[in-house]
Amino acid sequence: MAITPTAGAVSLANTLEIVEQPTLTYYVDPDTKRIRGTADGLTAMRQAVEIILFTERYRWQIYSPYFGAELDNLIGLDSGYVAAELLRRVRDAFSVDSRILSVEDYKYTYKDGVLTASFTVRTIFGNLEQTLEVTIS
Question: What's the whole-model pTM score?
Answer without folding.
Answer: 0.79
